[in-house]
Amino acid sequence: MHHFRGDLADLIVSFRERLAVVEIDAAGIRIYEVRADEVGTPYHLRRAAAKWSTLTASGDEVFDAVLRIAGDLISADEDDPVIVVRSADGHEQEAALRALRQRRPSAQVVEASGVKLAELLPELIAEAPLRHAYDLIVARERADDGRLELVGRRLFGPGAKPGDDAQVTITCTDAGGVLLAVSAWQGLLQPSDLVSVDHAPLPPGPHRLRAVLERPGVVRFPEVHGLRPDSRPWTEVVATVPAVLPPAPRQAHLVCAIETAGTPKEFEDRCHWAGYVIDLLTEQHLQVSVVGYGTHVFGTRHADRTRPTVALWSGSTAQARAALESLRPTAPTYPKAAQVEDLLAEVRDRLLPQPDGTRTALLTIGARPPHPPRGGLDRVPPCPARHDWLALLRDLEQRHDFRSAAICDSPSPSWGRLGSAALFQVDAVNAEELVVRLGLVASSAALSLPFVSQNEDIGGRQ
What is the mean pLDDT of residues 273-279? Predict the structure, then answer.
């Protein structure tokens, strides 16, 4: 039995087009066929089954019936091996064996008792070593022009056995995770060469993954939690690969400025959008500031020296969430404008020591426009501190890598300028688009496949 099992296992590994396995026992005859799919994974089918009683009790008639069945199902090509497993003696069994030998004189005949091919074949197929190499599909930059190309990072070579494992180092560049696509490509990558495609919710950065060959056609990544199949057509996946690697997320600082003056409902809506944007950026490792500003007080003997409330400056997203909760709504002391210009002055003063290379994004959420630097035809009183909001905004844009977006209750020319990168009304906000326009996440097509550097040894097909 052990010798026969080994012979059959060898045939499952070595057959070219197909392997015929015939089972002859006391009850009848069954013919199985073992083939390999597009990626070399073997599988089996039962092509015919007949009881002796359904053929005939005459040996000669059994011979004719089995010869006819074999002529339809067993190839005459000597490159397609045939193995016959006989576990019983008798006239029917002898007649069937003679018919099979006439069809294929080279058929290997094995005498074995207690063998059930319906159980044994799936076991041997699951234990079979790989017929083709398995690679992880990765992207790398071409040395001549830096454009991305898809290549294979070798996981398992031909002959790898179930239970083997491999280590592979890749870089995830997309905050949404990465696709782990295993291929058995033999030349140019074709969709039919894919063994599996799974989405892995990995954070951006380098990762060392362990791959385990469970059986032919099944590769697991046991340390990756939340892995799920990706059913998109491969052509669609390839179409999303950008021409060049998206730029790495740069150091960034988001300043959320919320007008506190207004009704509790207005204030709640403003804080909702600030919190939503902050939550979108929790994986970006950026600094966040939270500033609340209200309205100026006029008609008193002393000049208004009220400054915006800096609830947090350059903290984490978690700290920003807590700071946002600390803000409270205030009653408007002036109906037609707010301290937007004081807010810009506060940001300008605090950004003076800002490290080079840091992008600053200002998100202003409010209703009232800024005060002018001096009295004008609109009858809105000037800022008590004589701040010029437009000059401050231009200064920030010129001296820093600075972008400004706004969410307002109703648009106006000043809000259009404050929201030069993105402007939304409070009841129609696309926060995902807003963070892209602010430059806080990559605006180019994300690389959903693993990235490897040019100098890494691929060891697979290209």
Answer: 95
Q: Are 363 and 377 in contact (CB under 8 A)?
A: no
Residues 6+ apart with CB under 8 A from 245: 139, 141, 146, 148, 173, 447, 451
Q: Are 10 and 2 in contact (CB under 8 A)?
A: no
Query: The domain that contains 328 carries what CATH number?
Result: 3.40.50.410
pTM of the model: 0.59
Last residue of a domain, one of 239, 267, 292: 239
Contact 264, 298 (CB under 8 A): no
Average pLDDT over residues 420-440: 89
**Amino acid sitting at position 102:** Q
393 band by pLDDT with thresholds 50, 70 and 90: very high
Count of the separate structural domains present in the chain: 3
Residues 260 and 210 in one domain: no
As a whole number of angstroms, the distance between CA 14 and CA 9 comes to: 9
pLDDT in tens, 73-118: 998 888 899 999 999 999 899 999 999 999 999 999 998 888 899 9
Which amino acid does the sequence have at 185? W
On whether both 393 and 261 belong to a single domain, the answer is yes
